[in-house]
Amino acid sequence: MALADTPETHTDGARAARPVAAERRWWQLSGIPPVYFIVGAVLVFMPVVASGFVLSQLLAWSFILGMIALSLMFLAGYGNMVSLAQMTIAGVAAYMVAILGTSAVDTISLGWPWWVAVPVAVLIATLFGTLTGALAVRTEGIYTIMITLAIGAAMFYLVRQNYSLFNGFSGINQVNAPVFWGINWRAPLPFYYLCLACAAAAYGVVIYVKRSPFGLALQGVRDNPRRMAALGFNVTAHRIAAYALASAIAGVAGVLLVWLNGQVSPGTIAVNQAIDILIIAVVGGLAHPIGPFLGALLYVVLRTFALDVLVSLGLAGERFQLLIGLGFLLVVFFSSDGILGIWRRIRERQKRDPLTGHSTSGQSGTGDTDG
After folding, report:
1. Three-class DSSP category at 359
2. Rounded mean pLDDT of the chain?
3. 213 CB neighbour count, 10 Å cutoff
4. Long-range CB pairs of 178-184, under 8 A, 24+ apart, other chains included
5. pLDDT at residue 366 tops 70
6. CA dist., res. 77 & res. 349, Å (int)
7. What is the distance between the alpha carbons of residues 250 and 360, in angstroms, rounded to a whole number?
């Protein structure tokens, strides 16, 4: 028998191949590309170099808006259901925290402890979003958008005109974040880590659900609802369940939002805010759950610094909205898939063989996954 055919040789070859396979699988097992671990490490250690303003007013705000846009991305990307009520759902949770907890309006707030008020607020927001979904899923296309927009507009006028429960136009002020374990969770550093943890949890839940049997069935409903119904799947129930999950994510973000601002008012759930969430999700990219967070970061940066740029140029007023719009238009102009599409093009360009000009992603063996 030749030496190359001996069992010992095969054993040695298998042993030599094990470290290589293990080296390739250390991140593939989680389905997350290595760059995500790098980004995660940067975010964890960001407070070392960032100021309190950057932590709370830029990054934490981006996480919160990203979670609301993530709930929209989950519905649109995996269920083909575009909802303009996600900001309204977050606003319902914010109002419930103010009403059930403590605030400056003693005649309205019930003074419940935060560990009771917060779960109940998220539950009420989830129920509100589920009922919204139960109405919206019976329509398709533009009609779904119009129904969710109408619900959002109706909720806006309800809280604006009702003074006995929502304090009308003034809203509810001094809705403070809790203090427990000796930590003020509205301080920049703790609040940053709180928002980071919630955003990471929401992202992980969406990734997990996407790959679960329910998520796969939901994507099947998105692609061909008639065939899924013929296979025995309850199309309506899957869509309503998707709204429930998205509403829970938006509800958690609404709690963080009222703690960030310290107040909630009708402007929080205005129609323009709902449209901003749609823009954030589209500009970031609807193909992957990381897209809404990228779009939220771009939105927050432009919203924060656009006015300063215009003032330095001798301009002021509401023209900073124009600069924000131009920034979004540039992203969409270069990529119909938003920021994710631009990133994908850059990666494909880097992977191309310089001699043939063809992509080498299939030969690289890196096993790019949809992390």
Report:
1. strand
2. 84
3. 8
4. 178/114, 178/115, 180/114
5. no
6. 25
7. 39
pLDDT band at 6 (very low <50, low <70, confident <90, very high): low
Encoding tokens for residue 54? 């950057």
Separation between Cα atoms, residue 345 and residue 204, nearest integer Å: 25
Taking CA 213 as the corner, what is the angle to CA 119 and CA 31, rounded to the nearest 5 degrees?
A: 85
On whether residue 248 sits in a domain, the answer given is yes
Q: Which neighbouring-strand residues pair with 264?
A: 172
Report pTM.
0.84
Q: Cβ neighbours of residue 14 under 8 Å, at least 6 residues apart?
A: none
Q: Is residue 244 assigned to a domain?
A: yes
The vertex-346 CA angle with 288 and 353, nearest 5°, equals: 120
| Tens of pLDDT, residues 101-141 | 999 998 899 999 999 999 999 999 999 999 999 999 988 88
| β-pair partners for 179 | 184
Q: Are 188 and 52 in contact (CB under 8 A)?
A: yes
What is the per-residue pLDDT across 164-210, written as a single tens digit (0 to 9) for each?
A: 999 999 999 999 999 888 889 999 999 999 999 999 999 999 999 99
Domains identified in the chain, total number = 1
Q: Is residue 227 part of a domain?
A: yes
- Residue 18 vs residue 337, higher pLDDT: 337
In the numeric block, the tokens 């996407």 are attached to: 210
Cα separation, 149 vs 129, in Å, equals: 13
Contact 67, 194 (CB under 8 A): no
Judge contact between 299 and 279, C-beta under 8 A.
yes
CB of 159 closer than 8 Å to CB of 269: yes
Poorest-pLDDT segment among 175-179, 269-273, 344-348:
344-348
In which domain, by residue range, is 184 found? Answer: 48-282
In this structure, is residue 55 part of a structural domain?
yes
Single-letter residue type at 44: V
